[in-house]
Amino acid sequence: QVQLVESGGGLVQVGGSLRLSCVASGIIVSINHMAWFRQAPGKQRELVAGITSVTSGGITESADSVKGRFTISRDNAKNTVYLQMNRLKPEDTAIYYCNTYKNIPAVWGQGTQVTVSS
User: Which of 92, 52, 45 is nearest to 70 (CA)?
Assistant: First the structure.
């Protein structure tokens, strides 16, 4: 059974940083394309950043709105995916989720709330 558990969110001021973690069980993050998504109130869930599988080169991509500020990474030994978020803006406020991408998604976790105050 696949389980994705996100953590690391919180309340932060504009310009601050957070690092989100996603611990996976039931899947191996190194052989899957993994990504972070977010959903703000009243908006659709959107892709924030993704990383391809190790065999696909571990290529990363990110949404234009977070380029240069957010970085996705993966610790294969811990079967964990991270999202380092720097220079946070109020518009980054959302619930953040991790999941597979470029493929049928796994069951969504609870997500972790990120709130950026101005």
Answer: 92
Which two structure tokens, joined as six digits, stand for 65? Answer: 């709105």
The DSSP annotation for 47-95 comes to EEEEE--GGGT--EEE-GGGTTTEEEEEETTTTEEEEEE-S--GGG-EE
The answer for residues whose C-beta is within 8 angstroms of residue 82's C-beta and 6 or more apart is 19, 20, 21, 22, 72, 73, 74, 75
Q: Give the tens place of pLDDT for each residue, 30-60.
A: 999 999 999 999 999 999 999 999 999 999 9
Q: Over the stretch 51-106, which tens digit does the pLDDT of each residue have?
A: 999 999 999 999 999 999 999 999 999 999 999 999 999 999 999 999 999 988 88
